[in-house]
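Data availability (excerpt). The following record was deposited with the supplementary files.
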Amino acid sequence: MKKKVCFLVTEHPFLDARIFKKEAKSLLNRGYHVTMIVPRINGYLFDIDGTKFKNQFLSQTFTYEGINIITYEKIHWENNIKKLNYNIQNEKIDIHLDDLTRLGLLEEADIYHTHEFFSLYSAVIIKRILKSLSKKKVKIIYDSHELVPDPNEVKSNRIKKHMMSLLNGMLKEVDYVITVSQSIKSWFLSINPNLPVKVIYNAPPLYNDYKPRNYNKETFRIIHEGFVSNTRGNFQKIIDITETCNKRIDLRFKVIGGKRKTDPKMPIIPAQLLNKIELIDWIYYHDIPEGMKNGDIGWIDLDTTSSLNNMYAMPNKFFSYLNNGIPVLVNKCTDMYNFIKTHKCGLVVDNTTASATDYCEAIYYLYNNKDELKQMSLNARKVMENIYCWEKMEIDLFSIYDQLNN
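Predicted structure:
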């Protein structure tokens, strides 16, 4: 009989690249029966860019690409931290179960694979209930995409204290933790040195039509993958970098992602830069390599001032750039810095809060040292082929499942 896996999701869109496109599809292909329980917002599932699916996926349950999908209305868990912590610490089971926990319980899966802090809570309650009913002993995977709670986040100390207490209680019932960077792994091990933790990076499948990049051209193109708005994506910095650099070189910025549909304001490109900055809408996961074809470097700028999460991040776009042989330009974030230093596949600005001027100086250096840049490009692609592509990552995913099934 096929082993039954149930993904519990509280925040992410159901077509999330890591959750659906990679992990769920890999497990399906491995022979598992995979069910995902995912949130709706005001009755509708939502896409990666926040757009609601108003003309499709309207059934409460359906099968999509072989994956069982069960839906529920999104829950605002953050309003009940104190109660959730009380339930976990005192081994209480609220008879009025929330929809996610209730639906997950009905699945009676062998493994509950959770993707957020609050979906982990549901899994722990499910595990306790099934154990109390002597039905089965289930396993829990906590797939921690981010560091939660973030010690540096601007939030009341009381809430942080409750969240940390809640996490400590939940981790006692977790069978395996998956996370996305070495620093986050170390953070978990500082909480519990005996916790089984493995890093599975947010890497895409290997792009098979890759061709080595040609840097013998005057125009220099920077790729930024991700949504932009007046408050997201550092769009003003993109404008400042483009304007400043074009006083010395022909620099173009290509933004893949455009505007998040839930953000009412769209950044305005100054008239003099309309032919220098290209905004294109969010593109399908498998089309990203095509969208990056003419890029020379990939840009990441993360605000680390109140986010340890950003300091430790290894985002999807980082590996998308490398997959296409595009060297990465980034501010000084711990894990990306260590990766680039090890594999020589990009350039790190020596500043955690890098300015537009800092980036311009780095861009001039790369533009004027194209032999070095080309070697960075070759290194980027090589490290994806040999170590970090999804085909390598899924081997680690399968090994975790094999251990839990023994």
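Summary of structural features: The first strand starts at residue 4 and ends at 8.
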